[in-house]
Each structure stands twice: as structure tokens, then as C-alpha cells.
Recover the amino acids of this structure.
């Protein structure tokens, strides 16, 4: 099944690479800053066709086409293009993310970054890998030595919540805070040790399913903002190297 996630992610990623520079049909979804293009939809079809062909009875939750068959114990969770805003501007930070759940727990995941040519993979209990080599989270223990990464929700204009306040809270504690525009890549970067902690609220299952397993299998920790264990359906995620987890929770708790 991991091989199927890899095949589908790399096939769709190849399509994204070939689609660079094509004229885009852009529609807005939940808000005027939440775009989807024909490329998102076509990439999703490539993935869904591969999975349905090999596992016709499995459930699928795909960002652009929704949920199908909820009677199976297996559920594939698909983001065909994570980082659509970046993609529409030609900013090369986006990826394909595919996670597989068995009875509500993510057991396998593949994230493919077609610009870097990087494939991140993980299977529950078997470690996390980048292009076939084992990866591990960072060792940083202090926020002041840490790069933190976050994302902003699409309804921020109408529902700013505590997004800006939390960004400032962490900015005042960390070495640096980054906003890259692709939650799946953000999580892979935590798994690979390029960053030390990632938080985001109002997140969707397809943004985090594969990436959260990658972080855990790379030796990191994943919870909600209260420190509770989460599944892919959680709206809030904190994913860290484990060592700065409590410190990040302390900062997040200020605004709960
Ligand atoms: C978005 C990106 C972004 C995150 C948003 C996501 P999309 O996904 O992952 O970094 O901040 O919450 O919705 O729409 O590009 O697939
Ligand atoms: Ca996404
Ligand atoms: Ca997407």
C-alpha cells in the first residue's frame, strides 16, 4: 500500500511539474483567497484512478472530490496539490500528499515535492525516509535556537481568531518563524530536522495525514494545542521534535 501511495504521489507530482507555466483556470472555494485550479483537479484524478484500480473497496477522502465509500477500514486521504496559492504564482513550494488510514490511524504516507524531486515516506513503526534515507527530527531544546513554521487559514479575513497573536507570541520566543504555504511540506521539514516545530489551526485532514506520520516516525511528537494525541481529523496541530513540545504548548495555551 505504501508503494501505491508512492506511485500515485510521484505520478501526480510529475504532472504538476509538466503543468508549470500552463494557463490556469482559477476558481475560488471557501473565500476569495482560497483558489483551486484545473491542475489540482486533474492531479487528483491521476491519484484516485491509481488507488481505485488497485484497491477498489477502500474509502477515499480527496480534497477536491470529497469522500467516497465510508464502509472500509482503509481510507486514503489525498491532497493533490498542497500549496495551491504558491503554485498559481509559480512559487516552487508545493507538493502532493497522500496518507493511508486503517481504522482511523494513519499507517502510511508519501509526500512528493516535484520541484526539489524529494520523496518523503513513512510506514507506522518503520521510520521516516527522504529519498530512501532515514530522517530524524532535530535535537534543539530551546525555542530561542528553533525555527518554527506555521500556516494561516483561508478565512483569516473574516475569522482572524488568534492567528496573528500566536504568530507574534512565537516570534518573540524563537530564533525565527516561517510561513511557507504548504502544510505537508512544513511537516516533512520538521521530520527532516530542517525546522523544529510546526503549528496550525483550522487545518484539514488532507493537509496533515501523511506529514503527521512522517514527524512521528522521525522521532517527533504530534498533538493538538492542549497536548492531546490527534488523528488526521483534528483541526489543530502541533508537530515538533519532541524536545520543544512542552514549551510550544505553554505559548499556545496563553490563547486557548
Ligand atoms: C493550504 C496550505 C497552507 C495552509 C492552509 C492549507 P492548499 O493547502 O497547506 O500552507 O496554511 O491551511 O489549506 O489549499 O494549498 O491545498
Ligand atoms: Ca492543502
Ligand atoms: Ca490542495
Amino acid at each position: 500500500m505504501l508503494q501505491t501511495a508512492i506511485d500515485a504521489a510521484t505520478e501526480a507530482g510529475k504532472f504538476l511539474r509538466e503543468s508549470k507555466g500552463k494557463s490556469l483556470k482559477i476558481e475560488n472555494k471557501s473565500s476569495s483567497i482560497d483558489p483551486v485550479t484545473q491542475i489540482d483537479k486533474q492531479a487528483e484524478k491521476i491519484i484516485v484512478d491509481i488507488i481505485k484500480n488497485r484497491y477498489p473497496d477502500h474509502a477515499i477522502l480527496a480534497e477536491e472530490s470529497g469522500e467516497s465509500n465510508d464502509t472500509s477500514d482503509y481510507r486514503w486521504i489525498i491532497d493533490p496539490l498542497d500549496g495551491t496559492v504558491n503554485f498559481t504564482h509559480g512559487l516552487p513550494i508545493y507538493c502532493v500528499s497522500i496518507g493511508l488510514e486503517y481504522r482511523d490511524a494513519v499507517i502510511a504516507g508519501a509526500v512528493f515535492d516535484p520541484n526539489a524531486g524529494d520523496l518523503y515516506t513513512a510506514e507506522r513503526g518503520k521510520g521516516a525516509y527522504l529519498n530512501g534515507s532515514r530522517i530524524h527530527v532535530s535535537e534543539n531544546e530551546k525555542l530561542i535556537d528553533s525555527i518554527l513554521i506555521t500556516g494561516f487559514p483561508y478565512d483569516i479575513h473574516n475569522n482572524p481568531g488568534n492567528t496573528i497573536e500566536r504568530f507574534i507570541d512565537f516570534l518573540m520566543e524563537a530564533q525565527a518563524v516561517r510561513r511557507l504555504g504548504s502544510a505537508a511540506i512544513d511537516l516533512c521539514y520538521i521530520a527532516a530536522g530542517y525546522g523544529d516545530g510546526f503549528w496550525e489551526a483550522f487545518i484539514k485532514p488532507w493537509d496533515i495525514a501523511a506529514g503527521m506520520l512522517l514527524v512521528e516516525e522521525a522521532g517527533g511528537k504530534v498533538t493538538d494545542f492542549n497536548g492531546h494525541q490527534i488523528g488526521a481529523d483534528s483541526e489543530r496541530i502541533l508537530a515538533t521534535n519532541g524536545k520543544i513540545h512542552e514549551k510550544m504548548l505553554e505559548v499556545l495555551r496563553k490563547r486557548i
About this structure: The radius of gyration is 17 Å. The helical segments are 2-18, 38-54, 84-89, 163-171, 183-191, 205-217, 245-253. Residues 133 and 245 are 25 Å apart (CA to CA). The mean pLDDT is 96.
